[in-house]
Amino acid sequence: MQVVTYSSFRKNLKSALDQVTEDGELVIINRSENKNVVLLSLNEYNSILETLHLLSTENNRDRLLKAVERSKKNLYESHDLIGD
């Protein structure tokens, strides 16, 4: 995560945007009156929204957490994919 002033961000806009999109870097832009902004890539934003959606209901959250625990304990089955 990088924290920059608004002036610095404006001067280095392309570089900052490249860092965000190519390196997955988060940039916090400090502005006056504590009106700060977080800049993140669309991919990262969509990933956050998807995670929030998957965890939005108690039943789904419990199923996902149990599946992660089973995976950590190698308690899963492997299957071949059905071909075309």
From TrEMBL:
Pfam families, alphabetized: PhdYeFM_antitox (PF02604)
Family: Belongs to the phD/YefM antitoxin family.
Function: Antitoxin component of a type II toxin-antitoxin (TA) system.
PANTHER family attached to this UniProt entry: ANTITOXIN YAFN-RELATED, ANTITOXIN YEFM
Protein name per UniProt: Antitoxin
Native source organism of the sequence: Runella salmonicolor
